[in-house]
Amino acid sequence: MRKIISYLGFAKKSNNLIIGQSPIKRTDKKLYLILTSASASENLDNLAKNVANKHNCVHLKLNLELSELIDLKDIKIIGITDYNLAKAIIDNKESIIGEQ
Q: Which residues of 27-56 are buried (b: 16+ CB within 10 A; e: fewer)?
């Protein structure tokens, strides 16, 4: 899980992290990964799946809260816009994913 936290920190610092439902819906940037928190509603999960289909990217539902991984409060959904960071998170996803 430490690697995932590092990758998300890199994404945040390099401005490759889109945070929140509205910004993710409206983004023109290419998304490579969408993460939703364990406590995300069914509607938010459906939105994430629809946006993931639109952007042809991966959606992962976590088994923990995003606020535990990044230093922000009450975060339910984020998008990663960097291919290499998204791939690194996907390659190390075992410690953070719930049931798909």
A: eeeebbbbbbbeebeeebbebbeebbeebe
